[in-house]
């Protein structure tokens, strides 16, 4: 149940903090897992991000947003949030050629 809440919180944070292009090769849905232990939880998120973007800043914001939302909805103490960027999705109009 905590993983489902975390996945939804991740989806919300991703749409708020990292708007992705919506083309045919667009992003996969974010995924999340949660490991609970005695009133606390560790979360792992996996998602796609737009490119270009300030990756460290956006990741930090998403981690914070998800931790806050999961704590609010579950009452658990969120001890750790790790995030894996699965792939970067080029923004529309980004040239995909060689740099000369």
Can you put this structure into words, describing what you see?
A three-stranded mixed sheet has the order 1-2-3, with helices on one face. The chain has 100 residues and is of the alpha+beta class. The model has no long low-confidence stretch (mean pLDDT 88). Helix 1 (2-17) packs antiparallel against helix 2 (55-74). It contains two helices and three strands. It is elongated, with a radius of gyration of 15 Å. The longest helix is centred in the middle third of the chain and has 20 residues, at 55-74. Helix 2 (55-74) links the parallel strand 2 (40-51) and strand 3. The chain has helices at residues 2-17, 55-74, and strands at 31-37, 40-51, 77-90.
How would you describe this structure in keywords?
alpha+beta, 3-stranded mixed β-sheet, about 35% strand, about 100 residues
N-to-C series of helices and strands: HEEHE
Number of helices: 2
* Structural class category: alpha+beta
Unreliable spans? none
Biggest sheet overview: 3 strands, mixed
Residue share in helix? 25-40%
First and last CA, distance: 50 Å
- Assembly category: single chain
- Strand sequence of the main sheet, in spatial order? 1-2-3
Mean pLDDT: 88
Using the alpha-carbon principal axes, give the shape: elongated
């Amino acid at each position: 149940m905590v993983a489902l809440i975390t996945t939804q919180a991740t989806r919300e944070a991703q749409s708020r903090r990292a708007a992705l292009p919506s083309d045919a090769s667009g992003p996969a849905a974010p995924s999340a897992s949660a490991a609970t232990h005695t009133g606390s939880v560790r979360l792992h998120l996996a998602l796609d991000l737009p490119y270009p973007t300030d990756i460290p800043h956006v990741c930090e914001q998403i981690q914070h947003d998800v931790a806050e939302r999961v704590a609010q909805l579950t009452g658990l103490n969120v001890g750790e949030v790790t995030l894996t960027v699965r792939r970067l999705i080029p923004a529309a109009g980004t040239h995909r050629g060689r740099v000369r």
